[in-house]
Amino acid sequence: MFLDKVTLAVTGASGSGYFLRLLDTLVKSNCQIYLLLSDAAKIVLKTEVDEQWPDEIEALNAFLEKRFNTQAQQIIVLGRMDWFSVVASGSSAPKKMIICPCSCGTFASIAQGLSKTLIERAADVVLKERGQLIIMPRETPFSTLHLRNLLTLSELGVTIMPLAPGFYHRPQSIVELHDFMVARLLDHLKIKHTKSKRWCQ
pTM of the prediction? Predict the structure, then answer.
């Protein structure tokens, strides 16, 4: 029995290390994950961490089960245009969704309600069902247009959590920077973790 269900989407923005640490932590926190990958996300994975993920859905599900040592059906990969999937339906989609990392093009489409891909449709479903949507952009600087789109999403109740780790915990590795953001995210989702201690004076 899984403790929670989460939709996790990955776009072509830089930041594959954050995504991998997040996915691993969600698995270890006994969550069931509906995983959505854009075409660009696979290219970025290969570029940044030298991981070649299978294109075929069944092969990718088997690959991830072995890669993250999961329970059966703990990670469920969905196709880019799988309009009949759980996450596309307001009556059955998980109430929690994360886009990590989130490209500016993706959050622009969500802000305008375009729903051209399953990632955008899943986000639209979470918004209309008053669920919890967290987007994690990794871009700098933001243009005025980016900021307008982010403001629109914030006004709709979306949590905007840029991938901007802190340094007061004196990180000694890139992994610790990744874990800082993963911990902040899990706090917002109210998912228990042991990634980091809360800051106190």
Answer: 0.94
Domain of 172: which CATH number? Answer: 3.40.50.1950
- Whole-Å CA distances, 21 to 15, 26, 122, 129, 135: 10, 9, 22, 28, 16
The domain tally of the chain equals 1
CA dist 69 and 34 (Å) reads 16
Query: What would the DSSP string read from start to end of 46-109?
Result: HHHH-----SSHHHHHHHHHHHTTPPTTSEEEE-TT-TTSGGG-TTTS-SEEEEEEE-HHHHHH
Nearest to 116 by CA among 80, 66, 147: 80
Residue 198 lies in a domain: no
pLDDT digits (tens, 9 = 90+) for 165-192: 989 889 999 999 999 999 999 999 999 8
Task: In whole angstroms, give the CA distance from residue 180 to residue 184.
Answer: 6
